[in-house]
Design brief:
521 residues, seven-stranded mixed sheet, four-stranded parallel sheet, 16% strand
């Protein structure tokens, strides 16, 4: 099946590349592809590796794959998973050899630098696809078919990397205008990777050491602990060497998200919890799980397709549920086959095992290929924007929400601001923070969001009435009178909200004198 899929991909490629005369083949210069992913010597990464490798083969991904395995000498003594994937062992930098900083994520750029220096495969490749272990491949990822060119890698969109637009980029790259908010799926020419990789590692170290700028309102990191320094290391490193990404927000999807209509994602990234009905899955619940080495054990079975079909009437939401179960079922199928291949006893019959081996499941999970809409990049979308007149840019938007100096509003703020960046909402966001002077003396949440401070009117200064809700209109009035507001449209939300997509007023027919609002019935 995999061979047949690859041959189909080659035929499509010839159709896309004019004048080739049918001479080039995937796997021959200049069309050689290599896939990389980085892990550590832990059970947590082992079950992810099994799922990843199974999907790699099932999807018919061309070319070889290498697991970059970062382990200390002590970890290797008891490690059981050396045979889980084609592997290059790389020195662990989880504990930085010079600074002593504990930051395992740095192993990704460090591993790639090591691969470029020490692997013969790095001398025999034209295009490199870099993925994460917590991914399931649904179909071949062929860089040039996705639009990648030398100097123009393809990458998924990571909207929460707000440091590309503020002081963080200004401090860490000479070319902040080239900082792209990208990650997850990366596909680039080997020459670009050779130029980028050392800078990726260096900038990761640099951002990691810049503790003064780890705050949530600067980095977008909800924990404010510098955990996403490696992601900024990539973006700043790419800016330094002049790479300008083709940013695609369609090829990769988080299970739990609703796909855009007419878009076929070719990659799952199960980095976030997701659910179907009463069933749910979170990778963090399995951090120490030795499921790879426990014969016959799989992750809990999700609802069956027939059950899912009855859960949701909306076709696109129903499709999202089907994607959720496809992700976990593919992961379980990989575990099942791994157990069998490693001498585990034949598992007892069950309805679920029968389903995983069925023709129905095989048909549901056959390799997927990008649709035309899947290949649309952010650049394409920008070129197609129209507002009133051709070529007129969209008007500026500013999103605001009102809170007070209490932990109750702080966790809501973290959720709303995180969803703001994930949603791709245009423009800036401001928290209108109403506090008394006494509140401010003890308040610890100043860096949770870009903030405009306003005097508290919870206790009305004239009547003495206690009514905290009045802070919302009072704060908006104060912001309008005291802030430099350069937006044409204002989106006003509440703190206890999660954004699932951009709120662009003109698409809802908002205009001057005609605001748009949701009904409260």
């Amino acid at each position: 099946m995999a061979n047949r899929v690859v041959s189909v991909v080659v035929v499509v490629m010839f159709g896309l590349i004019g004048g080739c005369g049918g001479q080039e083949r995937v796997g021959e210069a200049p069309w050689r592809i290599h896939t990389l992913f980085s892990v550590e010597c832990q059970n947590y990464f082992d079950w992810q590796t099994v799922g990843f490798m199974h999907s790699f083969k099932k999807a018919g991904q061309p070319g070889p794959v290498t697991r970059l395995l970062s382990c200390t000498e002590e970890e290797k003594k008891s490690y059981r998973g050396m045979d889980l994937a084609p592997t290059l062992e790389v020195p662990s930098m989880s504990r930085h050899p010079q600074t002593g900083d504990w930051y395992p994520a740095i192993n990704k750029p460090a591993g790639i630098v090591h691969w470029l220096k020490h692997s013969k495969d790095a001398q025999n490749v034209d295009w490199v696809v870099i993925l994460d272990a917590d991914m399931i491949i649904r179909g071949p990822i062929i860089p040039w078919e996705l639009g990648a060119e030398k100097g123009r890698p393809i990458a998924a969109y990571y909207g929460y990397l707000i440091g590309c637009e503020n002081i963080l980029a200004q401090l860490h790259t000479k070319h902040p205008e080239l900082c792209d908010k990208v990650g997850g799926l990366l596909a680039m020419h080997i020459d670009d990777l050779r130029a980028l990789a050392p800078m990726w590692l260096s900038k990761t170290e640099e951002v990691r050491e810049d503790r003064a700028h780890w705050a949530t309102n600067i980095t977008g990191d909800i924990y404010g602990k510098g955990w996403i320094s490696e992601m900024y290391g990539y973006s700043f490193g790419a800016a330094e060497v002049g790479l300008h990404h083709k940013i695609n927000d369609n090829l990769m999807i988080y299970p739990g998200y609703i796909p855009r209509e007419d878009v076929e994602p070719i990659l799952f990234h199960y980095g976030l919890p997701f659910s179907v009905g009463n069933w749910s899955f979170s990778k963090l619940d399995h951090h120490e799980d030795a499921i790879v080495y426990d014969c016959g054990r799989l992750f809990s079975e999700p609802p069956y397709p027939r059950e899912v079909k009855a859960m949701e009437a909306d076709p696109n939401k129903r499709r999202a549920l089907f994607l959720n179960i496809e992700c976990i079922n593919t992961l379980n199928e990989g575990l099942l086959l791994h157990h069998v291949a490693n001498g585990c006893p034949k598992p007892k019959w069950s309805k679920y095992l029968s389903f995983l081996k069925s023709k129905t499941f095989s048909e549901l999970t056959r390799p997927k290929f990008p649709t035309r809409d899947s290949l649309r990049t952010k650049e394409d979308e920008l070129q197609e924007q129209v507002f009133d007149e051709p070529r007129r840019p969209y008007p500026k938007i500013h999103t605001i929400f009102s809170t007070e100096c209490t932990p109750y509003f702080d966790w809501q703020t973290v959720g709303l601001v995180h969803s703001f960046h994930l949603s791709g909402q245009p423009g800036n966001i401001t928290r209108l923070l109403s506090c008394t002077d006494e509140d401010l003396k003890h308040y610890a949440g100043h860096d949770l969001a870009p903030t405009h401070y306003v005097p508290s009117m919870s206790r009305h200064p004239l009547t003495g009435d206690w009514y905290p809700a009045i802070n919302k209109p009072a704060a908006v009035l104060h912001w309008l009178n005291h802030a430099n507001v350069d937006a044409e449209f204002i989106v006003i939300l509440d703190a206890d909200m999660i954004m699932r997509g951009p709120i662009t007023p003109w698409e809802f027919k908002a205009s001057r004198g005609r605001p748009v609002s949701t009904p409260y019935e």
